[in-house]
Amino acid sequence: MSDIKEEANLENVETNESEVVEETAEESAPKKLDPTLEGIQYFYESNKKIINYWGGGLALVIGLFCTYTFYWLPGKEKEASNEVFWAQMYFEKDSFNVALKGGKLIRTADGDKPMMGFEQVADEYGITKTGSLAHYCAGICHLRLGQFDLAIEQLQKYDGSDEMILPISIGAIGDANMELNKIDEAIKYYLKAAEKRNNNFTTPIYLKKAGFAYELKNNFTEALNIYERIKKEFSKSTEARDIDKSIAKVKTLGNL
Questions:
Q1: What CATH architecture applies to the domain 61-160?
Q2: At how many degrees (to 10) do helices 39-46 and 48-67 cross?
Q3: Comparing 61-160 with 174-256, is the CATH topology the same?
Q4: Could you give the CA distance from residue 224 to residue 214 in angstroms, rounded to a whole number?
Q5: Which pLDDT tens digits describe the chain residue by residue (256 residues)?
Q6: Where does residue 94 fall: left (phi above 0), alpha (psi -120 to 50 degrees), or beta otherwise?
Q7: pTM (2 decimals)?
Q8: Among residues 217, 161, 208, 157, which one has the least CA distance to residue 185?
């Protein structure tokens, strides 16, 4: 009798084990897609793991971008504006070396400390608009101090889009090249500055500088073309007031 019970129990155990194995196999087997799914829904179901993985990554990138744009960057911009104030003050006084290098002791809300010059502001806050502007100001300081190669290096790092400062920064590179007797380079930057922002202020200034540079190369034909353009297109500008004299001069020198 006991043998019969043991056999019955053994059969029940084997039956239960086989049911568990079947259930596990069913759970581990890949689910078949519903053949009625179409389009985007079918694509999503087919690539769910990959999409969820990359979707999470994209959400992280967007979150970091928002933090950088709306929190971190404005904070750095405010810091840069506070630091550059003193350099600008010395720049306006024509104290170009102090404006450039800093070092003067200043009094702030946090106590006395050495001021930052344009170079340090540009290095530490270059990612900000103020830091970019500091590159321009540092370039002008170097230009005024006769350090023309350093002026070009700093001016080329300015990446702003201001209507006036952008062409002036390019034109200043032309000025530095003129001082280095690189006349062809100077002409290139003067013409670039003239066309970068076509307006009645900076455009005729750099056109006239380009015309003068052409005169130095005895290229009186190009100089004449530029002077006539100033007379025609920018007749109300300061540069046009005595442009007839320049036109007459190059015509005589070039037998034009």
A1: Alpha Horseshoe (1.25)
A2: 90
A3: yes
A4: 9
A5: 444 444 444 445 444 444 444 444 444 444 444 444 444 455 555 555 555 555 544 444 444 434 434 444 566 788 888 888 899 999 999 999 999 999 888 777 777 788 999 999 999 988 888 889 999 999 999 999 999 999 999 999 999 888 899 999 999 999 999 999 999 999 999 999 999 988 999 999 999 999 999 999 999 999 999 999 999 999 999 999 999 999 999 999 999 8
A6: left
A7: 0.72
A8: 217
- Residue (of 36, 176, 71, 247) closest to 239 by Cα position: 247
Q: Are 183 and 211 in contact (CB under 8 A)?
A: no
CATH dotted code for 174-256: 1.25.40
Residue 227's identity, in one-letter code, is: Y
d(CA 140, CA 146): 10
Could you tell me the two tokens for 7? 């056999």
Q: What is the DSSP string of the chain?
A: -HHHHHHHHHHHHHHHHHHHHHHHHHHHSPPPPPTT--HHHHHHHHTHHHHHHHHHHHHHHHHHHHHIIIIIHHHHHHHHHHHHHHHHHHHHTT-HHHHHHEEEEEEETTEEEEEE-HHHHHHHSTTSHHHHHHHHHHHHHHHHTT-HHHHHHHHTT-----TTHHHHHHHHHHHHHHHTT-HHHHHHHHHHHHHHS--TTHHHHHHHHHHHHHHHTT-HHHHHHHHHHHHHH-TTSGGGTTHHHHHHHHHHHTT-
Domain extent listing, the chain: 61-160, 174-256
Q: 102-105, long-range: CB within 8 Å, 24+ apart, which pairs?
A: none
For residue 204, give the amino acid letter: P
